[in-house]
Amino acid sequence: MPQEQHYLAGLDLTGRKVVVVGGGTVAQRRLPRLLAAGASVEVVAPHTTPSVQASVDAGECVWHSRPYRDGDLDGAWYALACTDDADVNAAVVAEAERRRVFCVRADAAASGSAVTPAVGEHDGLLVGVLSGGTPRRSSAVREAVLDGLRTGTVADPGSRGEDVPRAGGVALVGGGPGDPELVTVRGRRLLSRADVVVVDRLAPRELLDELPEHVILVDAAKLPYGRAAAQEAINRVLIEHARAGRFVVRLKGGDPYVFGRGFEELQACAEAGVPVTVVPGVTSAFSVPAAADVPVTHRGVAHEVVVVSGHVPPGDDRSLVNWEALGGMRGTVVLLMGVERLGAVADALVAAGRPADTPVAVVQEGTLRTQRVVRSTLAGVAEAVAEAGVRPPAVTVIGPVAGLSAGDTDPAR
User: Fold this and answer.
1) Which domain holds residue 399?
2) For residue range 222-232, what is the model confidence (pLDDT) as tens digits?
3) Residues near 206 by Cβ (< 8 Å), separated by ≥ 6?
4) Which residues are CB-contacts of 213 (< 8 A; sequence separation ≥ 6)?
5) Same domain, 9 and 110
6) Residue among 313, 330, 325 nearest 401 (CA)
7) Partners of 335 in the beta sheet?
8) Are both 86 and 187 inside the same structural domain?
9) What is the CATH number of the domain that holds 361?
């Protein structure tokens, strides 16, 4: 059937009989959307996949455990021939023609009276693509359109999304470890719909280039050290803009709740009656080491991981870290915001019992093109980072895993 003869339409299958002949992987792929459309699905097949069986067991569809026979399409509105037997599929199509039932034939699309488009859903929109017998092309175009809708590069003026408050609100969005491609789909979508973006130094700056000109950009200048915008001032900016009816995205590096003071901002907004959406991010504690081929756990090497803030040094009365306990553990310590205090941290761990030759890997600007790794030990790491000129942001991994390489095959070495 030539492409131009296809007529793309939306079928209301709610409560209407749909017959799926075949219980294999093709039927498995088609079932979820048919069920989501409210169709009354009947599967005809001697055997089914576990996934199809699960839908049957859940009461979502009916299974006739036998081969197809003429008459199975009686009362059907729509049919799919999904077996691996060409003769059976042809028979299903023939019966469908006699009964004037639209039928999809999986093994020979041109022989059926209908084709299944590549379908995707976004924010209440159903996107369907037909490409005249080239399903990979259809799928690729569908994904491109959906990705554009998710990221905002394809405009959808009819909707701001279910998670965007109509009368103003705040989204705490984790921007990930630095690479703009590592922000979540939801985070990027909300960013594309923001009226105001409050950003700190560790958030992916490339994402800001995608913002429309009308977006108000507020730089929180929330550096780990030096001059910083007080948290109270940041809270005030979030609340004032939200109360003015604007949608505010608070874009942070990593995850908002991993040393990001995100919960403080949520508490402030909640006290002010401002609705808040929290979008988790990819935390640098694990993703940055991974980008540098440093695992934080490994079979036979490390079965525990502790993430520690180095913002307050050991021995400081403000510190809540039990350095004695960390010195006695065998697993991995991941240190964030601790480059300038690595010497003190290393001394505290060694004093608490950690061997001085414990491997250490320091990853600066992880996931970015400028990423670099400095490897040393607890005894020499302070001197090593000083000589290399390592500066924030950097993530430090302490433990046997920091000494592994891709060529290691003995997990217990």
Assistant:
1) 286-403
2) 434 344 457 88
3) 180
4) none
5) yes
6) 330
7) 308, 396
8) no
9) 3.30.950.10
